Amino acid sequence: MYDVHTHRAETNVDDIKISANDVQVYYGDTHAIKDVSIEIEAKCVTAFIGPSGCGKSTFLRCLNRMNDTIDICRVEGQILLDEEDIYDKRVDPVQLRAKVGMVFQKPNPFPKSIYDNIAYGPRIHGLANSKADLDVIVEKSLRRGAIWDEVKDRLHAPGTGLSGGQQQRLCIARAVATEPEVLLMDEPCSALDPIATAQVEELIDELRQDYSVVIVTHSMQQAARVSQKTAFFHLGNLVEFGETGKIFTNPEDPRTESYITGRIG
Amino acid sequence: MTDASIHSPASGGKSSLLALDARTKRRNAAEARFRMYGISAVAAGVFFLVVLLGAILSNGVGAFQQTFLTVEVYLDPAKLDKKGQRDIADIKKVSTFGYTPLVQQGLFDQIEANGIETPLAKRKDMKALISASAAAQVRDFVIANPDRIGDKVEFRVLTSSRVDGYLKGRVTRESVARDKNIKPVHLDLVDSFTDLGIIKKEFNWSFITGADASESRAEQAGMGVSILGSFFMTLVVLALALPIGVAASIYLEEFAPQNRFTDLIEVNISNLAAVPSIVFGILGLAVFIQFAHLPQSAPLVGGLVLTLMTLPTIIISTRASLKSVPPSIRDAALGIGASKMQAVFHHVLPLAMPGILTGTIIGLAQALGETAPLLLIGMVGYIATNYPEGIASGFMDPNSAMPAQIYEWAKRADPAYYERAWGGIIILLVFLLTMNIIAIILRRRFERRW
Ligand SMILES: Nc1ncnc2c1ncn2[C@@H]1O[C@H](COP(=O)(O)OP(=O)(O)OP(=O)(O)O)[C@@H](O)[C@H]1O
Ligand SMILES: [Mg+2]
Q1: How many domains is chain B built from?
Q2: Which of A23, A24, A26, A30 should be mutated for ligand 1, with most atoms under 8 A from CB?
Q3: Which of the two ends of chain A, N or C, has the fewest CB atoms closer than 10 A to its terminal CB?
């Protein structure tokens, strides 16, 4: 059943967007990520799977330096975005995060209007020259977030007044509004119903045209449906990384096999 | 599975939902008892509050009324301007002692004019009825209007505090027996004058707007100047404590690294909040007055001392309200490429605003009601006697503050001052209440319900 989408894998493989080498992450004394090396391609969806607590979110947060906000977190190794080291001293994480957007596991809209939620990013990055520009960006982003039809009549209602699933799509729309090059999504569908999930998955597939997308998911089906590459994490190690079709049909590592067949995790 | 039988109340039999088992009964009884404790605690609190407010009101309301007498004074040129030149310098040479007989005469004439029978046959007997401030009031009028010399002018002057007390029931015929200042015959005269409407009790604006007066002129003393003192002090506190406190809290909460040093600062701030206010007073005395040579008794110094005292309160409450903003909001802002500063100022601070404002206003209210540190920097005593001339002198000239003024009055011997102390407390409470209401309104306004 997993081989339905494997034909998507034939992307231009040589186009590497992010490349991580020997990344170690420590929370104080806890060694949360061990020796992870991975290459994330441009215009491709990469899925991170693995049992709870294995470090998927931690690694994802390394990619846009959100871990900087955690005092006890320490990152070692090298992560290159377009061949530039994002942990270089000269790199301003703020600039990095404008390029590498993020959608969080829990929907976290600002306590402002729906419009302002979307418009905030473009405003601070100076992407719109006029109110009309901004209106266009807001509409486009909300459409891409598959939520436009539901909110177009109440753009100035509070974003926190939406349902959980709507809030998550709002957050996705907010993340794409700043036109990032890479979009990191940490279990974006964990609060969504199957219909909204399908919409988000469709959106991810569409985003792939322009961006590279990294998605953490607990749903093997989702990983199989949306991703071209899959990385399996276990206890802080990257156990296996490869074409999604291959991981799900013919995994090399026994741990991967037991996980996708439901024996661990 | 096996332990189910241990918990089932009736061995073997099925328990009914309609009959309470022993455990439930005990639990319900405990809950009912706890409710009773709570209700009685609240009732006790309300009782004491009502008693307190009742005491304050019944003791203090009198201060808001004052007894005045209307008297026609003949501004005798022979006494007030002997040379007849209407030269203002000459007129100013006549002190209030020159005016006192004129005022007394004015009142004395009323006895005959109204046919009142009294054994008081001398003009000087009127002294007991009239406030010493009356002569000064007439003198001020004459200096302002020298052309009225020679006329008969009607004045509304204060009665002495004994007469005032008599009309308010504070002074009785029994208490007068031991009083050197006033005799029962005077009181008879006061009764007659009251019937004629010459002596009247009226609302006393000058208690709210006036300056402090000397020991012997309780009837003249007011809170006005010390209210200004408190006002300037509160301005200093607001201008210093709010920005410093909020900036310090934002830095400590959002930017500072978590290390030993910041931990130490944190502990010290919490400790400072618990330091008795008199310690801040002596610190202010040593640092601001003895070392920095700032003027004594000045609202500026008082404000600085109270700033030190309020800062910990503001910092603690600001940090608490910053902490209560969910971290996911910060993540959201950082995640779309906002800088830390943008995240804080665009998203965190607006959400924390109600808490910050509440904390600040509570801190200010605390500062407004603080007395002890002011004693040490000399803001207490007979000093709130002159209105400041302009903004600078408002900060730098010796002044008192509302609570210090109340304390000062409570110390004085005359029972009329005791009444004023209670009245002052009413004014102070009105200010504090207003500030709390402002705090509530601001919190409502800034609170986002989404
Ligand atoms: N802020 C933190 N402080 C200390 N330890 C942390 C922190 N965040 C994560 N960890 C630890 O790092 C490890 C990896 O956590 P992470 O959140 O990355 O797991 P995950 O794979 O995303 O799990 P899940 O699927 O449940 O979200 C866990 O053992 C966790 O306890
Ligand atoms: Mg996670």
Answers
A1: 2
A2: A30
A3: N
